[in-house]
Amino acid sequence: MKKPREVKDRHATFRMTPRLKDALEAAAKSSRRTLSQEIEFRLEQSFIYEKTIGDVKQYERMRKRAIRIQSGEEPSPGRFIEEAEVPPQYVTEEQLREEIDTLRKSIAEAMTPKKRDDVA
Known about the structure:
elongated; 4 helices; 0% strand; 120 residues; mainly alpha
């Protein structure tokens, strides 16, 4: 049984190049969506991507700062680090890059358009 569709009462009109329209139509056909559904899907994905990449960049900045603090290059921002009961774990630049690459791959997989079986 199909899920009830979200009521859509807003219309948007915009211009696009023939190349972009052809690409959107091909993607819509491949994913078995209408052109409108494909445009809406891709716009929604762009906001998810923007939020996720922002989070990854923030994570990357925080991890690099933590490494500088652990190595003594930067002073501790507060007592919670000095009073921690567990010894600090040092992370190499290579380990940090591997973590970031793993996150980026996960994001890319999550953003890959999936075929929708419920669209006729």
